[in-house]
Fold Electron transfer flavoprotein subunit beta.
Amino acid sequence: MKVLVPVKRVVDYNVKVRVKSDQSGVELANVKMSMNPFDEIAVEEAIRLKEAGKAEEIVIVSIGPKQAQETIRTGLAMGADRGIHIEHDGPTEPLAVAKCLKAIIDAEAPGLVILGKQAIDDDANQTGQMLAQLLCWAQGTFASKVVIDGEHVDVTREVDGGLETIRLNLPAIITTDLRLNEPRYASLPNIMKAKRKPIDAKTPDDFSCDMTPRISITKVEEPPKRQAGVKVESVAELVGKLREKGVIK
């Protein structure tokens, strides 16, 4: 079985995001970028399936600028087999990405698609669900455990009431949650091997994908700074302060 893993290049989660001076977006110049953490979990899960003999090939796909090839190389260094890079310098939106991924899936015919439940830059949490709808495939979202069983996959997912286990017919779409696994670090030998693994360079036009944004951002601003707290000496003073703020009557 072939497993396809879409990944996204985002601002590294350790970096403090800064808003541009003209409030048109966030500052990306000279900022450390890395693979979306949820997508790292997806890559790790695909590798574990291959190590368990459930998958034969892992294909990493990324849509983004030329530098997104570095993100693909990270997945290849972790253990994936080859990559596909759809070069696109403009903004990407979930529906356009899902349509482009559908075209790639139609060409690659994977048995399973694993992707992060959301990207930490826009937190949209939409691409996986849209992709499942476009393909008319079964989907298991927020997966915390994945077990392949013949022509089916059992997905344990986190819901409000606890854990829910669902059985999906393959092929299927799975989106990963934080508790699914802990991604491995790429070793130096694997990093060197990744440089020789193939990455197919494509464009959205190769798949007849329209990447034109449907949403325009009018303004981006930082959240208001938190007000300083006040120390109180007694419960009575605390109640008085809460009443002044209108929290209690």
